[in-house]
Amino acid sequence: MSELGHRASPFGKLERTLAWRYLRAKREHGGASLISIISFVGIFFAVAALIITMSVMSGFRATLLDALLGGQPHVYGVVSSYTEDEANALAAKIREIDGITSVTPYIEEYVLITANGRKTGAAVRAIRNEDLATMPFLKDGGKAAVDAGFGVGRNGGDVIMLGAFLAAGREGLGVRPGDKVEIITSQQTAGPMGGTPRSKSYIVGDIFKTGSVELDSLYAFMPMEQAQILFQSKGHYSMLDIRLKDPEKTHEAMAAIANATGNALYTFDWKSQRESYLNALRVERTMVRLLVMVIMAIATLNIIVGVVMLVKNKSRDIAILRTIGLGQGGVLRVFLLVGTVLGTLGALLGVLVGVLVVLNIHYVESFINLFVQGEVFDAETYGLEGLPAILDWNEVIRTGLYALFMSMGVSLIPAWWASRQDPVSALRFE
């Protein structure tokens, strides 16, 4: 065997040098064709698109769940049939269960709220002042509302809190802290002319944001004592708001609650209420990933055409290398390296751009807003305050490896064809 054959170790310096020279050669010298460049650009865009898309979807899911789980219980306990003391006793037992962070009683009723000539439906949630700290979205445990008089005075006073979009959204009441609103309930007050709906005026003490437009357009908070009078629920609560360290472990928590209370409490969790949300997000995430992976596969298929054209341009070089001792395996590895490098460079650039876009998503959104009227992702339309994105490094690594293996796989076809060429026939035609 010639000296070249001895020096041509698998993926050694010789093969790497040949592959790199073919990639760098100008088109007129038989180098990488325009199709190879197109395949590189296609892989770059596909990788970047997959990383950005999956990161935005992860951010959307996390933001949605954070908003929902910040503004609503993880586990609901129905206590409407118990007295206030009995409900408090059940809450005390539940607080002792490992993994449960808080248990707070509340009353919730649907009402009509009016102000400034506007009317809208809302859900009034009654809460005790000592439980305000369990609401993670209230700044400083609701200090601004308490300072304004929330829960202070006779029967809890007449100060309430409103969700941001209920107070000032497009379909809201157009009120600010200090303004008055009237709450009309479905309960009736008997009179000489028959029953009339119960109603009372309240002062807006503070405006809160849970992060969910749905909840911020619906909820109003009221002191417990005042709500018990307004809704004729003196001495009773409606529900227990049970919060967990891990909101995903609701089934384990409900089993522990049933055991601790002797099945005296009917419970259900947030998943049962939001099952359609979770299923839609899961299906959408899977389908988007498959769609972009198919697009990436199509982009890598262009490598076949690019490397085939390179092989045709370099048929004379292949024949000479074969006659001086480079084996079929060496030729295969040279052109396999060419296709793999094209895919790897495209994948690396796609990963870099995708990660940078995700890490600076708010700046990207602001830049896009410069060229459109209004906002691309309006909060009241999409239920999100800004475009969310969470970078999942496992997703980034999987995307990069998928592009790498696809590039290597499709490069095998033209590389194998190059290695099977007959050097004698190639030199004869040259």
Automatic annotation (TrEMBL):
<dbReference type="Pfam" id="PF02687">
    <property type="entry name" value="FtsX"/>
</dbReference>
<feature type="transmembrane region" description="Helical">
    <location>
        <begin position="30"/>
        <end position="52"/>
    </location>
</feature>
<feature type="domain" description="MacB-like periplasmic core">
    <location>
        <begin position="36"/>
        <end position="259"/>
    </location>
</feature>
<dbReference type="GO" id="GO:0044874">
    <property type="term" value="P:lipoprotein localization to outer membrane"/>
</dbReference>
<feature type="domain" description="ABC3 transporter permease C-terminal">
    <location>
        <begin position="291"/>
        <end position="423"/>
    </location>
</feature>
<dbReference type="InterPro" id="IPR025857">
    <property type="entry name" value="MacB_PCD"/>
</dbReference>
<dbReference type="InterPro" id="IPR003838">
    <property type="entry name" value="ABC3_permease_C"/>
</dbReference>
<keyword id="KW-1003">Cell membrane</keyword>
<keyword id="KW-0472">Membrane</keyword>
<dbReference type="GO" id="GO:0098797">
    <property type="term" value="C:plasma membrane protein complex"/>
</dbReference>
<dbReference type="InterPro" id="IPR051447">
    <property type="entry name" value="Lipoprotein-release_system"/>
</dbReference>
<keyword id="KW-0812">Transmembrane</keyword>
<comment type="similarity">
    <text>Belongs to the ABC-4 integral membrane protein family. LolC/E subfamily.</text>
</comment>
<feature type="transmembrane region" description="Helical">
    <location>
        <begin position="331"/>
        <end position="359"/>
    </location>
</feature>
<keyword id="KW-1133">Transmembrane helix</keyword>
<protein>
    <recommendedName>
        <fullName>LolC/E family lipoprotein releasing system, transmembrane protein</fullName>
    </recommendedName>
</protein>
<feature type="transmembrane region" description="Helical">
    <location>
        <begin position="401"/>
        <end position="419"/>
    </location>
</feature>
<dbReference type="Pfam" id="PF12704">
    <property type="entry name" value="MacB_PCD"/>
</dbReference>
<feature type="transmembrane region" description="Helical">
    <location>
        <begin position="290"/>
        <end position="311"/>
    </location>
</feature>
